[in-house]
Design a protein that fits this description.
Layout (H helix, E strand, L loop, with lengths): L2 H5 L2 E6 L4 E8 L3 E9 L1 H4 L7 H23 L8 E7 L3 H18 L3 E5 H12 L7 E6 L4 E6 L5 E6 L5 H11 L6 H9 L23 H16 L6 H27 L3 E5 L6 H14 L2 E3 L11 H13 L15 H5 L4
Parallel strand pairs: 1-4, 4-5, 6-9, 9-10
Antiparallel strand pairs: 1-2, 2-3, 6-7, 7-8
Helix pairs in contact: 3-4, 5-11, 6-7, 6-8, 6-9, 7-9, 9-10
Bound molecules: 5'-O-[(R)-(carboxyoxy)(hydroxy)phosphoryl]adenosine and zinc ion.
């Protein structure tokens, strides 16, 4: 195939790593032609978190229809595809297996290459969907339920981790704080909503705030919130939940903006991006926007729906691997966990 045609490659993206069954059609790694998402979140609410077995069953029920809807929305036939890209890890094993099995069968049936996509690289690639001109190098903040890291994207290939969390991920801290405040799953958006009604009045620790490196730590902050709630309950005191949510959110997110922009400054990188579910948080987006203006950096933020799990980011990253000719075979298996460094180096 000529290079110019390759650059226009049409990729079917499939993502089933958690509670979203997502299917996309993306041209040239950037142009979204279809974007289907079926969320099983309502089924998990009464359990206070994702129940893997329920998530897997809903993926199985939803994936074929979601794919048909995607093709119908884009007005495209399966023969028009150049490759099928699927999240193979990390995530819930049973949930991943639904997408991986479906993608293998689909690619085999239409005789097109299969591309195995790492979910974390997908979150980073979401920024390419936000701006057609975005090219490495850039500095990115990865802030999801499983990871918190500052990554220097030096090229489409080379991603250097400058710092990461030493314990909990920031999204995990939001989820735990939501639970202790009695807020519904999913925790991040619930805390954000409540925080909007409160003030930053509770003094909480800002772990590693002043430290020179780029690492993070969230377990101390999380424990401080839990202790605050328990102490108030023991004393029978009524405390302002909204103020606590606001104070937690401020402590959790300011440090991300500080370190991200310090990394960009110290490495002489002019473009900054963010990805992962926590990057959908409106307060964080405001902080990053203000900081970019002040520091004269170009900020590229994916739309909120492309920060949380979706299949467009999988097709965007699948496209990068497709151009490299990095194809998987039918022995591809799902992987529940992949260390961050391996994930970024695309080591399966
Ligand atoms: O990227 P994501 O959808 O899935 C993972 O790959 O982990 O991220 C999910 C995480 C959850 O911890 C969720 O609470 C958090 O992102 N999150 C948020 C918001 N939306 C999702 N955290 C804070 N504010 C939000 N608006
Ligand atoms: Zn994710």
């Amino acid at each position: 195939m000529r290079d110019v045609e390759k650059r226009d490659a049409l990729i079917l993206g499939i993502e089933t790593s958690c509670d979203e069954t997502a299917v996309s059609l993306v041209r040239g790694g950037r142009k979204i032609l279809a974007d289907e998402i079926v969320s099983s979140a309502p089924e998990h609410i009464r359990f206070g978190g994702v129940v893997p077995e329920i998530a897997s069953r809903i993926h199985t029920d939803a994936i074929l229809d979601a794919t048909r809807r995607a093709f119908a929305a884009a007005g495209i036939r399966a023969e028009d595809l150049d490759a099928v890209a699927v999240t193979y890890g990390a995530g819930l094993l049973g949930a991943l297996l639904v997408g991986v099995s479906f993608a293998k069968a689909y690619a085999y049936a239409i005789g097109k290459p299969l591309v195995a996509v790492n979910h974390i690289r997908g979150h980073i690639a979401a920024a390419y969907l936000a701006n057609e001109e975005l090219r490495p190098p850039f500095m990115t903040l990865l802030a999801s339920g499983g990871h918190t890291a500052i990554i220097h994207v030096k090229s489409y290939e080379e991603h250097e981790v400058l710092g990461s969390t030493l314990d909990d991920a920031v999204g995990e801290a939001f989820d735990k704080v939501a639970r202790v405040l009695g807020l519904p799953y999913p925790g991040g958006p619930s805390v954000e909503r409540l925080a909007r009604e409160g003030k930053n009045t509770v003094s909480l620790p800002r772990m590693l705030k002043g430290a020179g490196g780029y690492d993070f730590s969230y377990s101390g902050l999380k424990t401080a919130v839990i202790n605050f709630v328990h102490t108030a309950a023991q004393k029978g005191e009524d405390f302002g939940k909204a103020d606590l949510a606001c104070s937690f959110q401020s402590a959790a997110l300011n440090v991300l903006a500080d370190k991200l922009f310090r990394a960009a400054r110290e490495r002489g990188v002019n473009t900054v991006t963010a990805g992962g579910g926590v990057a959908a948080n409106g307060y964080l987006r405001e902080l990053l926007t203000e900081r970019a203006e002040r520091e004269k950096k170009t900020l590229i933020l994916p739309e909120k729906r492309y920060c949380t799990d979706n299949a467009c980011m999988i097709a965007a990253e699948g496209y990068i691997q497709y151009l490299k000719g990095n194809f998987a075979d039918l022995m591809l298996n799902a992987k529940a966990s992949i260390p961050l460094k391996n994930a970024l180096n695309n080591l399966h």
